[in-house]
Amino acid sequence: MEIPTQPGQGIDRPAALQVRRAVPGDLAALIDLENASFASDRLSARQWRHHLRGTRASILVVEANAQLCAAAVVFLRKGSTRARLYSLAVAAALRGCGIGETLLDACENDARERGCTHLRLEVRSDNAAAQRLYQRRGYRKFASRPGFYEDGATALCYEKVL
Questions:
Q1: How far apart are CA 160 and CA 162, in angstroms?
Q2: Residue 15 confidence (pLDDT)
Q3: Which of 10, 44, 79, 82 is 20 to 30 Å from the Cα of 114, by its Cα?
Q4: For the stretch 35-69, what's the b/e string if a residue is b when 16 or more beta carbons lie within 10 angstroms of its beta carbon?
Q5: In a domain, 7, yes or no
Q6: Residue 110: CATH number of its domain
Q7: For the segment 15-47, what is each residue's pLDDT rounded down to a tens digit?
Q8: Cβ 111 vs Cβ 160: under 8 Å
Q9: Which pTM value belongs to this model?
Q10: Residues 6+ apart with CB under 8 A from 58
Q11: Which residues, listed in sequence order, are joined to residue 150 by a DSSP beta bridge?
């Protein structure tokens, strides 16, 4: 079964979700998900390849019915106990089903396992759904950055002690 890509198609949370590390074979699906999820500030194919091979990024994906339906990128800095959630994307048709929360939980656990004590992120000031998710999960806003995104939108900066 192919997962619909349009919002509002009445999809319930899939029964079987698998969270795993991304592999190079996921590249095309990661690019497709990113392009469908974000109008700007996207990673290029070259950047994806670099992060998939490197040790300073953790890329986790969620599969439902053998289809990649969500992905997150967490950046790790050598010698730092702070990780940065760079991106979290869920296929439009499956938003609101708890997949983002499942993926965020996996990112937090992965950061902890890598010795991080804090997870930081930026979220668009006009993305109320994501802000609610992060606040519900214990993230606290500590700053805002006007003009942070390519289109000039403001970023709200959040952090959680892991």
A1: 6
A2: 67
A3: 44
A4: eebeeebbbeeeebeebbeeeebbbbbbbbeeebb
A5: no
A6: 3.40.630.30
A7: 688 999 999 999 999 999 999 999 889 999 999
A8: no
A9: 0.88
A10: 21, 73, 74, 76, 83, 107, 110, 111, 114
A11: none
Q: Evaluate whether residue 81 is within a structural domain.
A: yes
Q: Which amino acid is at 121?
A: L
The answer to whether residue 27 sits within a structural domain is yes
The whole-angstrom separation of Cα 36 and Cα 31 is 9
Range of the domain at 68: 17-120
Whether 31 contacts 46, CB under 8 Å: no
Tell how strand 118-124 and strand 82-90 pair up: parallel
Separation between Cα atoms, residue 126 and residue 79, nearest integer Å: 33
Q: How far apart are CA 10 and CA 94, in angstroms?
A: 9
Give the chain's length: 162
Does residue 29 sit within a domain?
Answer: yes
pLDDT of residue 100: 94
Name 122's bridge partners.
Answer: 157
Give the number of other CB atoms < 10 A from CB of residue 145.
13
Choose among 72, 66, 93: nearest CA to 1: 66
Sign of the alpha-carbon torsion through 100, 104, 110, 114: positive
Sheet containing 57-64: give its strands across.
17-21, 57-64, 67-76, 82-90, 118-124, 155-161, 140-145
